[in-house]
Amino acid sequence: YDFEWDSDFEFVIPDDMPSGIYIMRIEADGHYDAMPFFVCPPLGKRRADLCVLVSTFTYTIYGNHARPDFAPSWLEKISAWEAYPNNPSQYRHYGLSTYNNHTDGSGICHASHKRVLFNLRPGYLTFGGATCSGLRHFQADSHLIAWLHNQNIDYDIITDDELDHDGVTAIAGYKAVVTGSHPEYHTSETLDALKGYRDSGGGLVYLGGNGFYWRIVRHPEDSTLLEIRRSEDGLRAWASEPGEYYNAFDGSYGGLWRRNGRPPQQLVGIGFTAQGNFVGMPYKRVCYDKNMDWVFDGINDDLLGDFGFSGHGAAGFELDRRDEKLDDGEDITILAQSYDEDNRFILVPEEMLTHLTNLSGGPEADVKRADMVYFKTHTGGQVFAAGSITFCGSLPWNNYANNVSKLLRNVVRKFVGS
């Protein structure tokens, strides 16, 4: 989990360097590589009203995922698009991800970023066979970063690492904290920080799907090392065996946060309900309450996001919905919804009872949906949640002139106040 390569150079971050995502490009003998790094403001010295939370834990957990559907035909698309040329499926000796298995068939439960991570490179295609961009994680989150620059919205970034280490202090004072497309993996410390921020009057903008889903822990002596136990159920790449449900690093019970008494609905009002291939659908506006007109200011369409670079639609791949049994009883408004009308999605295992019944008690088609929601907390905080992994992929469409871009602009303006 640590290649222990020698350091060839160091780069000292200037005090006045703006917070953001940067790329270090290195060249040697006709070859080059490009490695991202994240510049955060000094603790307690924010430089903007908006904070982007970068999902570095999720990036690491997925690091070097050798996908089971990888095919040589992907290489043709990669070459034609001049995308990042290397794939973990071709170079397994660099270490695989927690979505892969050891040679004895057991699941890989530890991950670290102290190695080459192919899928953390600019231009990496997660889905080489998709008819759309095929971008996920770091690359998909660049849609949001590009949108912020296009809209001239100032922002700082904070990564999961700072949030885990510094707690709510890392994001205190920001008027809004916005996530990327897939903030799936969290420690108890990061969830505590986000809930503390929200409950102290902060604004949380969740722009993904399948977020806040799995519990992970950090090694107490090496914070770069993460552990995941895929206990009980959930949509998972492998299943922990009996006796392996507890994390070795701290003895805590692993698995879904839902099974640990902290479902995503308690934080953002919605939680993971369905998954499909890398395809997307539009949302349909369902809220016409005049108190919520600010969300749709300048938008005359009922269909939202029937376009996009990720799955061709703003609601896709992994979807979240509201479940009143799991939230904290907040007055949650469903703004828009997207239903799986073509039966291209499956219900997640924790929602299924039999092949005919599910926990909702209603038709399966009714719960395979994305809910876009807004609510205020009892303590003055507010939350907007998109409920879809492909939402951010619609932001740059038509050079950012589209209804998803307008909607998010309205949300940011409401939360930040300008």
Widest sheet: strand ordering:
5-3-6-8-18-17-15-12-13
Sequence of secondary-structure elements: EEEHHEHEHEEHEEEHEEEEEEHEEH
N-C termini distance: 45 Å
Number of domains: 1
The major sheet is characterized as:
9 strands, mixed
Cα Rg: 21 Å
**Structural class based on helices, strands and sheet pairing:** alpha/beta
How would you sum up the global shape?
globular
> What is the average per-residue confidence, as pLDDT, rounded to a whole number?
95
Query: Uncertain runs with pLDDT below 50, 5 residues or more?
Result: none
Query: Helical proportion?
Result: 10-25%
Number of helices: 8
User: How many β-strand stretches?
Assistant: 18
Percentage beta strand? 15-25%
Plain-language structure description:
This protein has 418 residues and is of the alpha/beta class. It has one domain (20-416). Helix content is 17%, strand content 22%. The protein is built from eight helices and 18 strands. The chain has helices at 56-61, 73-80, 137-150, 160-166, 188-199, 265-268, 364-367, 403-416, and strands at residues 20-28, 31-39, 50-54, 110-112, 156-159, 176-179, 185-186, 203-206, 214-218, 225-228, 271-281, 283-285, 303-304, 315-321, 333-339, 345-347, 369-376, 382-385. The strands form four sheets. The chain has a nine-stranded mixed β-sheet with strand order 5-3-6-8-18-17-15-12-13, with helices on both faces. A hairpin with a 6-residue loop joins strand 9 and strand 10. Helix 4 (160-166) packs across helix 5.
